[in-house]
What does this fold into?
Amino acid sequence: MKNKIKILEGSRAIAEAVALCQPEVISAFPITPQTHIVEDLAKLISENKLTAIYERAESETAAASIMLGASAAGVRAYTATSSQGLLHMIEVIYNMSGMRLPGVLTLANRAISAPINIWNDHSDAMAMRDAGWIMLFAENSQEAVDMHFWAFKIGEKVNIPVCVNVDGFSLTHTTEPVYLPSKQEAKGYLKKRVAGSNSLDTTAPISLGLLYGPDKYQDERLKLHNDLNQSKKVIESCAEDYYKQVDTQGLTNYNKKTNNAWWEYYGPQTAKTLIVVLGSTAGTFKTAIDLYNKKNRDQVALLKLKLFRPLPIEGLAKIINHKKHCLVIDRALALGANPPLYSDIKAIAKTSVNLTSVVTGLGGKDITVDLALKAIKLTRSKNKKIITL
Amino acid sequence: MIEIRLHGLGGQGIVTAAELIAMSAWSHQLWSQSVPFFGPERTGAPVQAFVRLDHEPIRLRQKIYEPDWLIIREDKLLANLETTAGLKRTGKILINSRLSQAEIKDKLPKNLYGVQIFSFDAQSLAKDLGTEILTTTILIGAFGQVAGCFDLLDLQTAIKEKFADKTEAIIKDNLRASVSGFKVKF
It folds into this structure.
């Protein structure tokens, strides 16, 4: 089994996965901690391992615009960024989903200035939360690789762009074992993108991104909202299809019930306490939960949310509303309001569920097993509360 | 699980060293993970990197606070208490130094008096090979020898893979350095 698995830096694994997905246009503007991904893609092109137009953009706004333009022309397009880079892109990010143009963005999650900080949290992801993109979060290199394959397929099926979130440094700069699909597996799963009726074509001109007046704008936005919500089934089927065709050598144990495209449920089904997290922190929380469950009768389980947008509301309700306590870990603040993931869960949970919000890990603050155990203990308190650790 | 923390200065290849250890151990049938101490690269500033080795897949991602092993590239880093912080009482130190074991022990906090020390002048060995930058590779070789987490062949495979896009001379120098590290007598 092990001889099919490689040990690679996370960024390299992502770059190789993206290359296997054969994008025709890659736009790049460097920013830490995303830089290694686009550097590695440039290397793969220079080594003739990938044929693609590689555009070194003059800014992130341009990088995103190049992706938008390429997608409008009907080809597969890719870029990556982090933090302030995403903020530069944000106008284009909204336009891309609004114009129903697919494309994949890797967001190497990093804190937002000020104060300036290059380390990992989810503040940047939350800045595009409402942009109408599909947003996936990876726990480890393997999930990051897998999700890039799904991302291209999903996006091109539903004409909605997809953002794959990978924790900056914690995943991008970590070297760990990963299985990369073979060229054959990749080709079997992901066919070349076919230009659609909304693609630019000089022989059959169309207009994109037109003005919609008060009579039409709301309907168009609602259509995106509804289509985004309905994409959940496509997301699930694209993941299911992936694991049918690609044997990840045991590094991801896909199963529809507890480890699907939407989430991974870890721990006993009967656990009365549930912890909800996004991203690589899940690994440390799994270790903490195992330790806790060995020593305590009241069991704890983890819900690692892989699909953050569209939020699988009905599915989450079925799990959360059977629990007595629910602890939500946010690695971002929604300044002046409740933390973002907590707000989402609070809107789903019945009043019978005792909810606790913990905000931690901002700007690279280390999330340790000790911190996780402390957070678990806080869930038993009856007062509704938002705690920072 | 074995947890290893590497200490050095920016530019000495500490992050690469951590990767090489992880890659070598992987080729020695262990699961491994290497993580640089998340920071922007600054030449000359203290650098840390972490490696975890285990018989099963590793999912823990916190920094390493209580290492089983410390690999220290410069003995002057002992003056910084962060270097030895949290080392297990049963822990081990591998250090590039001209100082004797007793002299190194004197520089450690009192609670670490019982730890095992492996010290040797890796820098002079590197100079003999032609360049001081090989000090780090020699240290990794020595680590492989004393910790037994990988063989010379595993390290050489890792070097060839990691430095695949470097010149042949660089690869050759590092291969020689790996041999030199495995031959050190403690």
